[in-house]
Amino acid sequence: MSVFGSKTSHLLQRGWGRVRWKMIAIVTFTGTAAILILCLAVAALNVVVRRESSNVVEKQIEMLVQASRSVAPAILDQAGSCLEQPAKSATLKPLLAYTNEAFPQARASLTLENAEAVRSLIPDPDPAGVKRPAWLPETGFAGLVVDRGQIEIRNVLTQQKDACKVTAMFRLPLGSELGKRLSAAGGMEVTPVLPRPFRVHSPNQRVFRTIEANFMPGISSPTAVVLTVRNWETGALEDWIAYSVRANYASTFEDLARLGSQRANWVWLLIALSLTVLVLDASGVWLSIRFGRDIASTIDALSNAARQIAGGNFAWRTPVRSKGQLGDLIGNFNEMAIALERLQKDEAARLRVESELQVAHSVQEYLFPRLVPVLRGATVSARTLAARMIGGDLYDFFDFDRERIGILCADVSGKGIPAALMMANLQAVARAHVSSTTAGPSVPAARFVEIINQQITGRFGNNRYATLFWADYDSRTGALTYVNAGHPSPILFGPAGEIERLNLGGIPIGLFAHARYTATTLQVRPGSRLVIFTDGLTDAQNAADEEFGDERLIDVCRTLGARIDADGVADRLMHAIAEWSAGTEQFDDTTLVVVDVPLQQRPDEGTYANEAQSRHHCQPVVTSSTGAPGDTRR
Fold it and tell me: Which of 229, 252, 275 delimits the end of a domain?
């Protein structure tokens, strides 16, 4: 018994959880509205039936009024002349007998008026009722009147006969006898009441009594028959209550159902429509409960799935138990969960790649010179800024002795990891073919570049190449021997501001294994500056998609004073590039190498500058305390 009770409780709780109070509220509101509409329809039908019963009695009384219009003229026609005795007329007696039979409790009077006196030829038991009021027209009157609290049907007609005036009056009180005849004629219970004026808003009439008397179906209280009568004394029209009637619903429906000799077809149609409405209403309630249960079950399942996904369980799938839009909703939710699971895996993979790129970035930093050599009579500086976390630009210094260095600057095609790998390989090949002795490379400059080209070509694919600039500078003699393998032409600024572009050498390396290169030697005089750069510097764009260009590079270099060393020149140029491309995304790696030969040689500072004074890598643009952008000192 305990197990059964537990299962029953579980099922009830489960059913309640599926339906939910909102669905119950919807069904309750819908059912309440239907009940209210039904009650309103029944109440309206009750009002119609009750008022129709009252109208039937009123119409019957109006028919009596119309029928009584001919009584007074008939009496006058049978009254004879002024000299006759109408009460003894043989023709008048049958008329009065018929009137008494047709109109129970009716009273007739005949009055003769001449110059001598007024005589009552047919006396009335109530002489006060025969008195003619002032408002009564000469042409006669027929209708309902109220006289001293009594409602009557009166017909008054006056005619001039010879030298006298004869007035006939017919009176029919609305009493119990007439009520019996009205009940028999209408098939309803018509009861006479004490006549009283009718007031729409009586002070002692309560709202609930009004509702009970008019709108509640099947009540036993009668309906008042309200008649419009004329006050006999004043002639004013007034509403009075003369009878009360109890509606006979069966006879009323029977009368409505019968049109002519056969039962009306619309009655059966009405019954069929009523049954159809009842079936549709029950079906609607059933569908509401069923759909409510499905909606609640779907919401529960989706809520549970949302909690699972919010907890990180993206592998959760919700079973599809419904069809239609609810099933589609669960299916779409499952697709969202699948997409989130895939996104989670992609994000994990991306984080792994970023972590690996960060390691690669740290490794690449160590490929650049940690220390910048210092020559007698010249200063050297370099900067590089990758478009991505790792880049394909390369610069390197080869220290041959205190007055002679080798400078390598290269730009590998592409960006990212492939370019970084090719750059590292190019650097390794270059260092492998530079002699460890102070004599420099074991081969001439042109041959040195040719060897690098042979080692690089085809190693990273047929479409991979690199531009390269190699220079051998001797500060004692000022001789600069260089090879330009398709690299952007470095700019040599002379002491007097003259410009020379170093563009001789050959095609980029990595395209053709047997390509030949030529070396060129020129003299660098004191007061000169050599600016070596990759195309990322001159191709930098601003917000208007305008490139920085060679001309702006030359203009910036010309504004720099002779006292600024290579570090200062590199800082100013990188700062100018940063200002130019502010608000835009860097799309290419940028590398800059500066060799400054001052007019006066600086004191000997040793083979290498102090590590804290060397700069070899340019981070994303920031402003240091000295105003130099993108500079990290090690």
Answer: 252
Task: Place 215 in a pLDDT band, splitting at 50, 70 and 90.
Answer: low
| Per-residue pLDDT, 489 | 93
- Has residue 112 been placed in a domain? yes
Give the single-character DSSP code of 599.
S
At 336-378, the pLDDT tens digits run 888 888 888 888 887 887 776 677 677 767 778 878 887 888 9
Encoded tokens for 504: 């001789």
Q: In whole angstroms, how far apart are CA 311 and each of 307, 316, 335, 518? A: 6, 10, 18, 67
Question: Pairing mode, if any, of strands 528-533 and 491-493?
Answer: antiparallel
Q: How far is CA 312 from CA 162, 319, 504, in A?
A: 121, 19, 62
Instruction: Identify whether residues 439 and 561 lie together within a single domain.
Output: yes
The reply to whether 504 and 622 lie within a common domain is: yes
Structural domain range at position 103: 13-252
Report residue 588 as tokens: 């290419």
Amino acid present at 320: V
**475 lies in the same domain as 436:** yes
Q: What is the pTM of this model?
A: 0.49
Exposure string for 500-527, b = 16+ CB within 10 A, e = fewer: eebeebbebbbbeeebebebbeeebeeb
How many structural domains comprise the chain?
3
Backbone CA torsion sign across 277, 282, 285, 291: negative
Residue 612 is classified by DSSP as: G
What pLDDT, on a 0 to 100 scale, did the predictor assign at position 437?
47
State the pLDDT at residue 217. 56
Q: What is the pLDDT of residues 308-319, one digit of tens each?
A: 888 888 788 888
Sequence-ordered list of residues with C-beta below 8 angstroms from that of 249, at least 6 positions apart, any chain: 49, 218
Domain end, chosen from 365, 391, 422, is at 365
Residue 411 C-alpha from the chain's centroid: 54
- Are the C-beta atoms of 433 and 485 separated by less than 8 Å? no
Which residues neighbour 354 within 8 Å (Cβ) at sequence distance 6 or greater? 389
| 274 and 230 housed in the same domain | no
Residues 445 and 348 grouped into a single domain: no
